[in-house]
Amino acid sequence: MATLTESDKTQLLTWIKTTKHLKRIYKATIDGLSADVFHKKCDNKGATVTICWNTDGCVFGGYTAIDWKSTNTTVQDTSAFIFTLYGKNKTTYTNKWVQSSLGSQIKIYQYPKQGPSFGTFVCFKDPTSKTNGVFQSNGAYNSGYVPPATYCNNNFNYKEVEVYQIVDELDVVDEPWRQEIQEKTATIKKTVEDYKPIQGGDVDQCRILMVGCVGAGKSSYFNTINSVFRGHVTSQAAAGSAEHSLTTKFRSYQIRNGSKYLKLRLCDTRGLEESQGVDPEDITAMLDGHMPNKYSFNPFAAITPETPGYIKTPSLNDKIHCSAFIIDGTSVDVMNESILKQFKMIQKLANQRGIPQVIILTKVDEISQEVKENLSNLFYSREVAEVVDKVSQLIGLPRGHVLPVKNYEKETELNETVDRYALLSLQQMLRFADDCLYDLLDD
Ligand SMILES: Nc1nc2c(ncn2[C@@H]2O[C@H](COP(=O)(O)OP(=O)(O)OP(=O)(O)O)[C@@H](O)[C@H]2O)c(=O)[nH]1
Ligand SMILES: [Mg+2]
């Protein structure tokens, strides 16, 4: 996979002779392979290392201590070097070439139309193109230096290009923005296992509704919680990326814990779309418990009492007791007006019914490099704290109702920290669901 492992990073830092850290500032498959974007993201950042993955499996790149700029200038860097982490089909670390062994200095080209350029090696040049997931980069080399056959098998067609800044410290603060609770993960898990809705209302399982945009991670959140209790990573609910919602049915999922079920259900829904507003009738039917399990959403017509399976007289057990807005942490800055309106409409309907709401903020690993590298930095990450502030203002819920999580997505094994934040969020929602039940029963 085109990604740096921890030992790759250690190797690079050893070659650079530093004890500092690598912070990713550019990634072609996310940002696009373009000199313009590269300069916007990487200019004036001091020392950086560029890494390319070509279609022959070579992993190679260059280091410079000089700023990238868009000034049409060149600067000689005696500390710069070109390296091959892995040669074609190789699995062991290969080589680095320093300027002394090149017989010439490495010149750093600060050209606006060129990506990272290390004299002999120009990583890419505008215009680039992309076919079948491969970037045609216009990458090139100048003769008289290390021949490209040596470091990349003459192949400048990339699967990925990344640039990392060398930073003194990763962007975490000393004081957490949210206090870490002291309980062990196993204790939080036990609390959820032992949870029973408050007595008196004949509610066997409390119901949590998950709503949010296409691709926000609703189904993945259920899969994550399900995985925690199954003891291995599961993917019962289909998750992935698609133009329209991958989830097309209303699913009220149970979670098996050994031979029993947890006393809660997670209700998965079709993703909200910018162009297809969700029907308030559908939301009402879900909140009030009229919608049957496995109901197929119809984007062109809402559910009616005549729809087969419509639950005409729902009990307290069928109703929603907590509503979770599942929001992709990387999309908060660009949340669309139409989506925001849909959230507000759902919020209004939930408020009218006294249903508490939370925000499950997903993909926190994609918000912050520090969190990606170590999820335990979650409550220490400045970037995550900013997104939490922003989303709480945008939706109009207190910050304490914003629950950041990282869902299982590419993992094949469980991870205690992933479990921990998922469980914390679920525990919080169960408390809110109980508040809702108290309220309903008091009436
Ligand atoms: N990195 C990262 N990826 C995530 C996370 N949560 C979900 N994803 C990925 O995001 C994509 C969409 O996730 P889904 O769970 O299918 O999203 P959804 O909200 O159910 O989307 P629809 O059913 O299409 O409306 C998948 O490829 C997931 O692997 C997360 O916390 N971190
Ligand atoms: Mg889904």
From TrEMBL:
This is TLDc domain-containing protein. PANTHER family: INTERFERON-INDUCED PROTEIN 44, VWFA DOMAIN-CONTAINING PROTEIN-RELATED. Belongs to the IFI44 family. Pfam families: TLD. It comes from the Eukaryota. Residues 1-167 form the TLDc domain.
